[in-house]
Amino acid sequence: MIVRIMGEGQVKLDDAHFTELNKLDDELLAEMESGDVEGFRRTLGALLDAVRRMGTPLPDDALEPSELILPSPDATLGEVREMLSDDGLIPG
Amino acid sequence: MSDGVMKRMGMIFRAKANKALDRAEDPRETLDYSYQKQLELLQKVRRGVADVATSRKRLELQLNQLQGQSAKLEDQGRKALALGREDLAREALTRRSALQQQVTDLETQHQTLQGEEEKLTLAAQRLQAKVDAFRTKKETIKATYTAAQAQTRIGEAFSGISEEMGDVGMAIQRAEDKTAQLQARAGAIDELMASGALDDPSGMAKDDITAELDRLSGGSDVELELQRMKAELSGGSSAGQQAIESGQNGAAQSSPQQDRPRFDKQ
């Protein structure tokens, strides 16, 4: 599966890693919903590190659609919350 | 996969990308592109048929040549035997038997090629029929789409409803759906406006005949104006200058030549 880290690029990940990533992803969602800024920052860092560690980076000129997308490492809780709101990432 | 941050962001991106793609895509262009691709494919199949036919003809020439040689060797063997040279006759027959083996091999190849050629010819014919059918369908869809688009534009211009398209798959499916959607929407808008459920913000809804008549009379006004200007220009530069000045001053200060304001249409 191909995962994009916004602002960084794409990595190819083996499906076997998803159990571990899902755990972090669920944690991140919970922290985002409860407004736990510190926890959010920590979990996002851990999730991005795990993706980078387990995945193989795709060349910049590769034209593969990403199945999963992750916020950039410096994204704030508020920004991610806004991205996931009804209006989505690109207005309109 | 749970609906975590990763998945939800991915879904939003995809939805947005589809929407953007859908807006940018003109089904008429997609149809023309598909048709072009089909023509290219047909060309390839036809080239394949020609290649196979050429190979088959080359094999036939080789076969003729080998059969000629084989007959010659048989003749030589017969002559050698008649002269009492059994050794020579044996040699000739041995060579002939090697040639016969080649002939059998070539004949098998020839049969295979012939089969291939028939299959390819049939495929080319079928493809040709499909491409022809697609062309007809494409033109129909394009015409319907253009008409529906125009109809929708007129309806939407009055009602102020913005464009919003659906999401479909293949080129033809996409075009058909869009066309149907546009037609349906044009119909729905008309109905809503007719029923009074949808306000016409312009306050000047007209039926299509009135609109066409307006357009035509607008056109003839332009023609009349043009004729007048031409006449003025040919009548002398001072008259032309006057006409321009009166135009600049507007209808309120009409020149004595004019009985009534010319630019009275909104």
Distance between the termini of chain A: 28 Å
Order of helices and strands of chain B: HHHHHH
SS field, number of helical segments of chain B: 6
Cα radius of gyration of chain B in angstroms: 39 Å
Taking all Cα atoms into account, the compactness measure Rg of chain A is 13 Å
End-to-end separation of chain B in angstroms reads 62 Å
Residues in helix, % of chain A: 40-55%
Number of folding domains of chain A? 1
Number of strands of chain B: 0
> Helix count of chain A, per DSSP?
3
List the quaternary state of the chains. heterodimer
Unreliable spans of chain B are: 156-169, 195-205, 237-266
Main-sheet strand order of chain A equals 3-2-1-4
Mean pLDDT of chain A: 84
3D shape of chain B: elongated
Helix/strand class of chain B: mainly alpha
Beta-strand fraction estimate of chain B: under 5%
Helix content of chain B: over 70%
Protein described:
The complex is a heterodimer of chains A (92) and B (266). With 92 residues, chain A is an alpha+beta fold. Chain A has one domain (1-84). Chain A is 46% helix and 14% strand. Chain A contains 3 helices and 4 strands. In chain A, a hairpin with a 3-residue loop joins strand 1 and strand 2 (9-12). In chain A, helix 1 packs antiparallel against helix 2 (37-54). The termini of chain A are far apart. The model of chain A has no long low-confidence stretch (mean pLDDT 84). Chain B is mainly α and 266 residues long. Chain B has a domain at 13-188. In chain B, 81% of the residues lie in helices and 0% in strands. Chain B has 6 helices and no strands. Chain B has helices spanning 5-24, 27-82, 86-159, 171-195, 208-234, 237-249. In chain B, helix 5 packs across helix 6 (237-249). The longest helix of chain B has 74 residues, at 86-159. Chain B starts with a helix and ends in a 17-residue tail after the last helix. Chain A binds chain B through residues 3, 18, 21-22, 25-26, 28-29, 32, 65-71, 80, 83-84, 88-90, and chain B through 1-2, 4-10, 12-16, 20.
